[in-house]
Structures are given as structure tokens and as C-alpha cells.
Amino acid sequence: MKINKLILGFALAINAIAFAQSEKKEVLFTIDDKPYYTDEFTRVYNKNIDLVKDESQKDLNQYLDLFIGYKLKINKANKLGLQNNTKYINELKSYRTQLSKNYTSDTKVTKALIEEGYNRSLKEIRASHILINVDENAAPADTLKAYHQALDIRKKALAGESFESLAVKFSQDPSAKENKGDLGYFSAFRMVYPFETAAYKTKKGDISMPVRTRFGYHLIKVVDSRENRGEVTVAHIMILKPTVTTDSPEDKQKPKSIIQDIYTKLKQGENFESLANQFSQDKNSAPRGGLLPRFASGQLSSEEFENVAFNLTTPGSYSEPFESQFGWHIVKLIEKHPIKKLEEMERELDAKIRKDDRSRLITNSLTSKLRKKYTIKRNEKLYASIKALVTDKYYEAQWASPKDINAYNDVLFKIENKEVRGSEFLGELEIQQKANLKIKPISKLVDFIYEGFVDTQLNTYYNDNLENEFPEFSNVIEEYRDGLLLFDLMEKEIWNKAKQDTLGLGNYFRANQAKYQWKNRAEVLIASSTKEDVVNKARKLLKKDKTAEAIKEELNTKEVVNIMTKQEMVEEGTENFPKNVVMKEGVSEVYKDGEFYFVNKVIKVLPAGPKTIDEVRGRVINDYQQYLEDNWVSDLNKEFKVSINQDVFERVKSAMKK
Question: How much is the pLDDT for 104?
């Protein structure tokens, strides 16, 4: 699917940057009498100008044409009703929720939590635990009973009883019977926050006091502490597993056989990078000698690969062949790196905090500020009448609000211009009844629920009004809204049409056949080795029309891989075109390139000529999409009435050039 520069320029370059306007806001142009203003045009131009590589688009006259074309498409999308699409509404809502997090956080609290998380991430803790279950909303008596039970177990451990035996006997964590409470090594953000805090604050060999989490009370014994292993840079050679499911034992064993041959060549002293370049099937890393970007624990899709990489200790050393879910690998250690600096991890840590129990600390801090920002005056008479309705049946989840709630539909309190009615609080009381809260007496429970209800309403109001509070937030949301609409419109009007209009696609292909031509091609078998005499033998076998498998069988042994082969179709003038290949059937002379000797056999030559549409369908569809779009913008100019205030535009240009 093709996304053109307009979408990238106007919709996806989302940064909360407000452009200060020196000139007053004026109508720059209208589309069917709908006004578009100078401030939006100058803001978008200045924000995106560095992203535009086409110099013509930096010209203000050209940019105005692009901007109008963009707004024409948005008008078309709205005319078609794409803004009412459920998928569009949900995606916009999801993006707004994500972006709003930057405005609904207490930065001071967040910064402190980021620093704490970073400092903890420098260490990995190994701990065991014993869990005594107690519900988060349990009655005080049940909570106290669980706490004392945990205390009694701790006393037994401190008196010398084995923590592991106590875990097996008393822990209500189902896994304790098998692991004796051992949780292995973990770092920050791997456990619930209260548990993590206790683990990091408990000394090695000590047992914590009972720690309350949503699961119950824990006793934590810290067994060990070690440095975080940081990041590592490696290179690898990979042979992929078959992409097609096969029952053939030979096909299943082939990748393993190839990687073993390569491993044998490594042990014979051949160069890792050269072998990776020739034989690794990781197309991204093979041209760089198998080199991968540096990574930390948990960043790759294969734990097996990470463990092998981190277990290598000496730069330049390499592993034995091993299997991952993707295929077979040999890994070479290039360099080990210490853990990232705090400033490099801030965004990552911030994202983790928002998904963690720590986020409650941030929410509570913001709520406290909102309580000061907005004055809440409660209708005491209405509140008292609602409170009188709630009886002790609430504890058994048998309470119900009145069937006729009109008497309670007056305003209970206001947040600025938002009215919150008593009937809404009654609804909240019914919802919270399911939480099985045990606060007594019932009047205190109602007060507790009311305070939480007010907090929720405050946060909701604040979030709903971010566009009014922060102009830059409003601008970004508007850009994203337009970008989503434009994407859906392009998919409907251009991309899908280009794929489905087989007749139009065929006509376009035939009219532009000259753009889709093959150069001379050849099917080539290439044999290589670090030993010249072996390649000479291979050349003789090639001249006898021996197959690649037959050559390997004759020149290789179980212990030594002397020759490697590959057969492929190559096109003259392309990047992967082998050296010393002549576009003529036959066997080449032996030649050397780097540390390797090569011989080529050109099996078949295909002359230059036109490609079929099936051979270039993807490229033709892209070209046809662009052709349709270019003509479509002209049609939109006819469908909508565009009127430019030329005097206003001239003033904008003068102001922007200063």
C-alpha cells in the first residue's frame, strides 16, 4: 500500500510544536464556503518544511496547491461519510488516549519513578517467596488473619527452618510445590510494584516482613543479586528452516547439514564474515558479514539466541551451531556493552511505568492537583437522601437503587460547566457493589465510593477538555484525524481500485510496457573454496555436467567441507550479479576474490526482453495508483468550489519570508 508525501507531511509528522504567529488569523481560502485559516497553513508549513525533500514543494505557491489538494481530499472523505466508520472512530480514540498521557501525568512524580526504575534495573535479584492469599477487598479481620499467618511463618524461618520447606508447606502460590518458592532472577518491572520494592530493599540472605500486594501477603527471601548483563553486539550466520511444511526427513535435516558444513569451515580457519556474506540467509545482516544491531535481554524474539549470545565471553569467539524457532545459527561475539544510560532509557521506562502499579502514584498526584484546580460544591441535601438509601444489604450485593430515579436527577455537583447528577452516583453505587468492599459502617463506605466517583469525574472532565486547555494538543489531534481520513479515502478511491481494476491495470501496463523490461539474465551455478586445487577439481566436474550435489559429494567428507555451491538466476547489472560471469553458456576459469577461489557455470542465458505483468505486478499497481491519484486531484477541483483570498496569501508570504 502506498502512502504519498502528503500523508507523511501533513498527518504522520506528529510533534506537539506550536508555531507562534505574528500575523492575525485570517481566512486564506474556502472550499464550498468552508473557511481555512492562515494560522494553520503557516503552522503546518513550518513544522513540516524540513521533512520535504522535493525543493518545489518548499515554494509557498506550490505548497499552497498541495495544502488545498490535501484539504480537498479531507472534504471528499467527509462527504463520503468515512468519519462515521467504526474502525476510524476507534483508531482515533486510541491515538487520542495515547497522546493524552503526556498531559495527564505529574512530571515530578513520573521523573522520580523513572529514576527509581532505572536504578533498580541496574541489578537483577534472585528471590524466593511464600504467599498467603487474601483478597484485595477482604474484610479487616480476614486481612489481619493473613498478616499474622505470614508473620508466624517468618518467625519459623528466622528460627532456622528451611525457607524452601516452609514454601512447600505453607505457600498458596500453586507453583511453590514444584519450585519451592524460587522465582529465579528478575529486574525492575517484572513483578508487581510492592513486591519489587520489598525485594530491592531486602538485603541478600534476609527475609522481608509480610508485603501486601493484590494477591495477598508475601514473605520474600533474597537469595542473590547480580549486575544486569547490559547489551551485546554479535554477528551471526543463519540457515532458515523450510518455509513449506514437509514430512521429508532429508528436507528437515538440510538446514542443520548446511550449518554444520559452515561450522566445519570455520574450524578449518575460514573467515566468519566471508562465510556469512556468502551463505547466511538473513538478507539484512549477510551483506555486513552477519553483523546485527546491539540488543539487550528480551529485545529479540528468540530467548535461545539471546542466551547463546550473552554466554559468549571473548570478542571474536563463536558458538557451536544451535537451533531457534527460525532456523540454525552460529553466533560470533563482537562486543559487550554496559547497560544504557538513564537518558537513553527514559521513554522506555516511562511506557513501562504507565502499564505498572506505579501509575497509581501518578494518577493520585494529578487528582490531587485537579482537586485544587476545580472547586467542587456538593448538593448536601441530595447527597444525604442518596446516602440514606444504602443499607447493609450492600455488603451481600443485594441492594438496589430506586426504580424511579427521577427524584435523584438533580445536580449533585458541578465541574466548571459540567453537571454531574445524583442518578449518575446511584449508578456508580450499583457498579461498586460488585467490588465486594467491606468498609464499615455503611455510611463510611458510601463516602469512600463518593470520593472515588468525584476523582473519576474530575479526571474525565480534564481529559475531555484537553483540546481547550492545550492548543498544541488540539492541533496534533486534528492532524491525526485528517491523516486517518485521508488514509481510508486513498484506500477506497485509489489503492483498492488499482488492485481490483484488472482491465484498467492491463491497459496501463501495455501503454507503459517500455518501463518494464528485463536485462540479460543467466542461470548460474557457483562453486567456492579457500583451496584453489579443490575449485580446479570442481571446474572439471562442472565441465562433465555434474550437479552441485554430486560435486559436494565427491569433494567433501564428513569431517571436512572443501567446497560450497549455490545456484541462482541473476540479472546483468544488478547488485547480486556475480563477478567474472560472462553471459554465455559454459564454465569459467578459476578466479580468486578475497580469500576464496570461485568457478562459475552458466547453465542458461535469457536475453533482454519485456517482462510479463505477473512478473512486475506489484510495481505496476504502485505506478497505476500514482496515475489514478494524479488524475483524481483534478476531478476534486471540479467537484468542490475553491476560492483563494489572494491578498491574504500575499501578506502571508511576505510575513513568512521575513
Answer: 81
Which string of b and e fits 165-188 if b means at least 16 CB within 10 Å? ebbbebbebeebeeebbbbebebb
Q: In this structure, how many other beta carbons lie within 10 angstroms of the beta carbon of residue 501?
A: 15
72-95 tens-digit pLDDT: 999 999 999 999 999 999 999 988
- For the four alpha carbons of 129, 133, 136 and 141, in that order, the dihedral sign comes to negative
Residues contacting 195, CB < 8 A, separation 6+: 129, 211, 213, 218, 220
Tell if the pTM clears 0.85, that is, is over it: no
d(CA 578, CA 569): 10
Query: Widest CA span of the chain, in angstroms?
Result: 104
Residue 441 and residue 329: Cα distance in Å, rounded?
Answer: 66
Return the beta strands (E) in 338-432 as ranges.
Answer: 411-415, 418-421
241: helix, coil or strand? coil
Helix orientation angle between 422-433 and 380-389, rounded to the nearest 10 degrees: 30
Q: Look at residue 615 and give its three-state secondary structure.
A: helix
| Burial tier of 433 (Cβ tally within 10 Å: 0-12, 13-18, 19+) | buried
d(CA 389, CA 400) in angstroms, rounded, equals 9
Q: Which three cell numbers stand for residue 625?
A: 495508483
Residue 480 in grid coordinates = 491525526
Is residue 163 a contact partner of residue 126, using CB atoms and an 8 Å limit?
Answer: no
Query: Which residues neighbour 604 within 8 Å (Cβ) at sequence distance 6 or greater?
Result: 522, 523, 585
For 618, the grid coordinates are 506489484
CA gap 463, 469 in Å, rounded: 9
Quick one: pLDDT at residue 22? 39
DSSP assignments along 55-112, one per residue: GGGGSHHHHHHHHHHHHHHHHHHHHTTGGG-HHHHHHHHHHHHHHHTTTSS-HHHHHH
Separation between Cα atoms, residue 87 and residue 94, nearest integer Å: 11
Nearest to 193 by CA among 218, 172, 174: 218
Question: At residue 561, what is the residue type?
Answer: V
Q: Which cell goes with 419?
A: 453537571
DSSP 495: I
By CB atoms closer than 10 A (0-12, 13-18, 19+), residue 345 is middle
Nearest to 342, CA basis, from 174, 118, 572, 150: 118
What pLDDT is attached to residue 247?
A: 62
Residue in this structure with the C-alpha cell 518501463, named with its chain if needed: 515
Q: How far is Cα 423 from Cα 429, in angstroms, rounded to an integer?
A: 10
Q: State pLDDT tens for residues 198-207.
A: 999 999 999 9
3 state DSSP class of 619: helix
Query: If 0-12 CB within 10 Å is exposed, 13-18 middle and 19+ buried, where does residue 449 land?
Result: buried
As given in the structure block, the three cell numbers for residue 274 are 566471508
- Cα separation, 635 vs 612, whole angstroms: 32
User: Helix (H, G, I), strand (E, B), or coil: what is residue 544?
Assistant: coil
**Burial status of residue 388 (CB atoms within 10 A of its CB: 0-12, 13-18, 19 or more):** exposed
* Length, in residues, of the chain: 658
- With a cut of 70, list the residues of the chain below it in pLDDT: 1-24, 48, 50-58, 244-247, 297-299, 576, 658
Q: Cell numbers 471528499 label which residue?
A: 76
